[in-house]
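Worked example

This section walks through a single chain of length 116. The input is the sequence exactly as stored; nothing has been trimmed or padded.
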Amino acid sequence: EAPILLRRASAAYQIFAGLVTVSLFIIDMRHMSGTLLSTYHSLELFALVLFSFEYLLRVYSGVEDRGDLHMLSCSDIWRARLRSLVRPSLLLDLLSLTSLVIDMSITSNAFKRSEE
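Given that input, the structure is written out below as tokens.
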């Protein structure tokens, strides 16, 4: 079982990530003024960085629970990490991150354009 500090940090992260996501939904449903548009874009960029960092950490640490890790070479460990990329949960996360990047790159979206 994980230490209490680690469990609390995990819970705090989950709450924080949830609040960022809910904030994006709330702002997305409202009329976009210039200030709100800037806030929305900043939150979206922050969410992309946060979730990308989390994704990379999960790819890196995905093989850490193997019992024979100390017996593997560095290249074998990296191969195991790359093989873990095809797990359904990581593929779904990659798809989500890709859709967020595509959404941020669309400049003609009516929700991202301020009213003139």
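What to look for: The chain has four helices and no strands.
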